[in-house]
Amino acid sequence: MVSDPYQNNASGWLSRPLAAVAAILTGCATHEAKPIDGAAVDRALGTQAVESVRVEAARIRHPLVAPMVIDGRGGFTPDEVAVMVVITSPELRALRDQRGLAQAQIVQAGILPNPQLGYSADWPHGTYDPAVVEAKALGLSWEVTSLLTHRDQVAAARAEAKAVDLSIAWQEWQAAQDSRLRAFRILSLERRVALAREIEDSHADTYALTKKATSLGLRTSADVATSAENWTQAQATRYDLEQQLGSERAALSLALGMAPSSRVPLRYAAAASPSARDAVPDADSLLTGLEDRRLDLVALRFGYESQQDSLHAAVLAQFPKIGLSLNKSNDTTPIYTRGVGVTVDLPLFDRNQGQVAIAKATRQQLFDEYVERVAEARSQVAQVLASLSVARAQLAAVEASLPDLGRLVASTEIALRSRNADELAYRDAWATLAARQIDQILLQQEVVELKVALEIATGRPSLD
Question: How far apart are the C-alpha atoms of 76 and 87, rounded to whole Å?
């Protein structure tokens, strides 16, 4: 039996293009499994060492969060907590993963379409006279119109990456400010809970004394009912404050990536508590440069710039697609040929009009969203300033009443020692003073929260 020489050469001719394809594929990425199981989650939720947090806090680079040397002795200040949250928060860690996606999109936008390599071979069968040869064809083609939109697509991806980066920085600052507020609330609640317990104990003693005085005929049953009601209300107030304190502590632990049962030690900074005598910021100075300070607005502008480039790319993509090809072939006679080819899309139906319309609508949406966000920011500044003025006025009124109440308690105590007043009158005076001190602490906290809200509304890290 005589073998077919043409059939025997088939594997040789096929091996050449297959070898070229195999060489290209060796540079491809490989898949690496990353299972999501209990062990992986526990490792990710592991609490970061305090020392490493301190090192990162001193070297942090952020447009709104300044580097800080964290002491930690005696507790952490609200400002220190804010920086720590930016470093350790699991929520922010997931948010920052968007940067990797944005950078990957830049890479994707910069990749041109691959050229296409075509190869074919035909082997004749049987015996021929005159002799014939294998018919082979080799062609290389590429779509050249991809170059038209390449620059705009890359520019759009880069602008979008900047928008994502600024948006993440803004949300990091929001999270930092939120945790800073929680730290202030916890410190305020701890002071108020302590006073509320003292008030509750005082009302409990008053209730016992009133019952004793009633048995001696010095008080009536109505006085007993009133003192019992005061005691019950004091208990309810203390329970409510303790519940708020527990919720704030749990939320702060979550933000720091700590166990829910963990208790973060806190302390006040060296600066004094806010006072009604603090200067009120000027509205005009706060609104000047607002759009350049607020990172969310700057991010929106970069997003708008990205959409501008995307729209330009969509308009250019209306140009008919053109493909160029080079080929070399021979038939079985053999006759060898070389040639070039051009393919052009006929834009009878698809002229990319849908993508152009989508890009225009998206650009208009981003423009209107930016205008709305600017108007909202300006309105927030005015609202916060108005609320801040009211809170300062209320705080001033409370602070003005404290000296008189303090003197009343002191004079009642002196009268009690000289037996010119009973203990119930002294306890009532003291309870009134303690309640007013709670009001002062609460209003101080309100002023702090409004100042932080003003920082967020204006994009200014510190207004002190």
Answer: 15
Q: What is the dihedral of CA 266, 272, 273, 275, to 10 degrees?
A: -170
Return the structure tokens found at 453: 């809200």
Amino acid 31 reads: H
Q: What's the rounded Cα separation, in Å, for the pair 64 and 461?
A: 6
Rounded to whole angstroms, how far apart are CA atoms 47 and 235?
A: 37
pLDDT at 1 over 50: no
Domains and CATH numbers, the chain: 48-458 (1.20.1600.10)
pLDDT at 57: 87
Residue that the structure tokens 């700057």 belong to: 298
Residue 326's DSSP bridge partners are: 140, 340
What local confidence, expressed as pLDDT, does residue 2 receive? 42
Structure tokens at 438: 């709670």
Q: Whole-angstrom Cα distance, residue 368 to residue 370?
A: 5
- Tokens coding 292: 């350049």
Q: Identify whether the C-beta of residue 84 lies closer than 8 Å to the C-beta of residue 95.
A: no
In whole angstroms, what is the distance from residue 343 CA to residue 347 CA? 13
Distance CA 11, CA 30 (A): 29
Residue 334 CA to residue 308 CA, distance in Å, equals 56
Q: Strands of 336-344's sheet, edge to edge?
A: 116-122, 135-143, 322-330, 336-344
> In the predicted model, what is the mean pLDDT of the chain?
85
Partners of 340 in the β-ladder: 326
pTM, two decimals, is 0.80
The tokens describing 188, both together, are 């305020």
Q: Find, among 356, 374, 215, the residue nearest to 293 by Cα.
A: 374
